[in-house]
Specification:
The complex is a heterodimer of chains A (about 230) and B (about 250).
Chain A (H helix, E strand, L loop, with lengths): L5 H18 L1 H22 L3 H24 L4 H5 L2 H7 L4 H30 L7 H25 L7 H27 L5 H30 L2
Helix pairs in contact in A: 1-6, 2-3, 2-6, 3-6, 3-7, 3-8, 6-7, 6-9, 7-8, 7-9, 8-9
Chain B lengths: L3 H9 L2 H33 L13 H28 L2 H32 L8 H22 L3 H29 L18 H33 L4 H12 L1
Helix pairs in contact in B: 2-7, 3-4, 3-6, 3-7, 4-5, 4-6, 4-7, 5-6
The chains are: A mainly alpha (about 230), B mainly alpha (about 250).
Chain lengths: ~230, ~250
């Protein structure tokens, strides 16, 4: 059996997932729409005072993006499990961790990237000062891949179960506490005019770690869940 | 002489041997837990003097602190047996890990409840987003996640392996949560009982605390033995030794 070179196999997995996502463009819009709706609800619930909204804007946008990602996380491997292509991927000669890394990348590109694009708009809806928005984007650019990677491990663990939506949220919460704390810490520091580089650096370090370990963990979890 | 210990441990890994061993250990552990618990409660509630600042309110410490220790200790036991279960695929280790989780969750819940009862008297609030409280809450969620994942699978052994993996991810996460939360906010007092160096607590208060700690450990051993026995019977229900036990039980 001749093996496809690693680079080409990676590109093929990535292209396949992106094509599948593009064919169902409506699904990409769902998390964005969800984030928009949640953000709209904040002023109704808290009152439209600018000072109050300004104070909570950073954290509210972070949590909204996180919830929107959680919504999409559930479906990361579902269709692949249903049609059996995930098992083919497990059996493929290429390292499973790398292939899953590509799938996670495709998932991040289709769910988190639109959310990052729309984040400045959400933030300005809540009156976040425009000087803080670059920090928000930086924090999101580091925090969302973290969530995708950590979430992928948990989704892989629940791959063999029927009901996983609520369970996924319960399992993800402890993992995303540090991410939210550091991202929100950077935003709060930037809003007060303090140096914000330290929490961002922590997030970056955590992302570097997760980038290496999470695909391996995801592969191990998937092997357990599929009992391969 | 020294070779019988590994051999004995090896044998203990087999379900029928462990079933009999746990059956013998169980009543002793329960008796020890009750006696030591009584002594500790008498020492803590009657003999120990009231605190100069908190009066009698501090006495909840004799439940609160041992439960908090047990919450962490049981997570450690669960993670170690989860590791053993994943690496060497020992059935007993899976059962021990999965049956530890509800006990640990219960101790963590007791810690949170007694802590908030203490908090309402001392701090004037049931709950505050303090570092210790938040990481304890996260610990509870970790336990609940493990329990939930275990029960979400139809195949119990597969569920046990998946939940064991989650428990291992959790133990990497525990120090990260602990330190990140520590940076974020803090009100809870520091540790007063030290393993190394002198404790900053009076001896008349510390001995009931340590006795209670041993009592909770014994209770955990008792509870774990009972749960593991029941679970082993269910898991091995088709095997000969279970049939034998069933026959003996019905003959009585």
């Amino acid at each position: 059996m001749s093996q496809a070179p690693l680079g080409r196999a990676c590109a093929a997995v990535l292209r396949r997932d992106l094509t599948l996502a593009w064919r169902r463009r409506g699904d990409i819009a769902m998390p964005v729409l969800y984030a928009l709706i949640v953000t709209t609800l904040f002023p109704f619930a808290l009152g439209p005072e600018n000072a109050l909204l300004q104070r909570i804007a950073g954290g509210a946008v972070l949590v909204t993006v996180l919830l929107a990602m959680l919504l999409a996380l559930d479906g990361m491997f579902r269709s692949d499990i249903e049609d059996g292509s995930l098992e083919q991927l497990v059996l493929a000669p290429q390292p499973l961790a790398l292939m899953l890394g590509m799938k996670i990348l495709a998932h991040w590109l289709t769910t988190a990237l639109p959310l990052i694009v729309i984040a400045p708009m959400l933030a300005s809806m809540l009156q976040l000062p425009s000087t803080v928005i670059p920090v928000l984007l930086l924090a999101l650019a580091l925090a969302t891949p973290m969530l995708s990677l950590l979430g992928a491990v948990l989704v892989a663990l629940t791959a063999g179960t029927r009901r996983s939506g609520m369970l996924l949220a319960l399992m993800l919460l402890p993992l995303c506490v540090p991410v939210v704390i550091f991202a929100a810490g950077a935003l709060a520091a930037a809003q007060q005019g303090l140096p914000w580089i330290a929490p961002i650096a922590w997030l970056g370090a955590a992302l570097a770690l997760a980038l290496v370990l999470a695909p391996l963990g995801c592969a191990a979890a998937l092997r357990i869940a599929l009992d391969a | 002489m020294s070779s019988w210990i590994p051999l004995w441990l090896h044998k203990l890994g087999s379900p029928p041997t462990f079933y009999r061993f746990a059956g013998k250990l169980r009543p002793w552990m329960l008796a020890l837990a009750i006696v030591l618990g009584m002594i500790a409660l008498y020492g803590g509630l009657v003999l120990a003097p009231p605190d100069y600042q908190q009066g009698d309110d501090y006495r909840i410490i004799f439940v609160h602190v041992p439960s908090a220790w047990m919450g962490l200790f049981i997570y450690g036991v669960m993670a170690v047996s989860a590791f053993i279960a994943l690496v060497w695929r020992i059935k007993l280790a899976e059962v021990v890990a999965m049956e530890s989780a509800p006990i640990g969750a219960a101790f963590t819940l007791i810690t949170l409840v007694t802590g908030s009862l203490w908090g309402v008297r001392m701090w004037g609030t049931w709950w505050t987003w303090d570092a210790r409280l938040t990481s304890e809450l996260v610990l509870l969620f970790l336990y609940l996640g493990v329990i939930g994942l275990y029960h979400a699978f139809e195949d119990r052994r597969q569920g046990a392996r998946a939940a064991a993996f989650l428990a291992l991810i959790g133990i990497i996460n525990v120090p990260i949560v602990h330190f990140s939360v520590n940076w974020w906010n803090t009100l809870h007092q520091g540790s007063t009982v030290r393993l190394f160096g002198p404790s900053t607590m009076s001896g008349s208060m510390i001995w009931p605390l340590l006795t209670m700690m041993v009592a909770t450990k014994c209770y955990y051993a008792f509870s774990l033995c009972s749960r593991v026995r029941a679970d082993l019977l269910a898991l091995e229900s088709g095997k000969d030794w279970v049939r034998q036990i069933a026959a003996e039980e019905s003959a009585r």
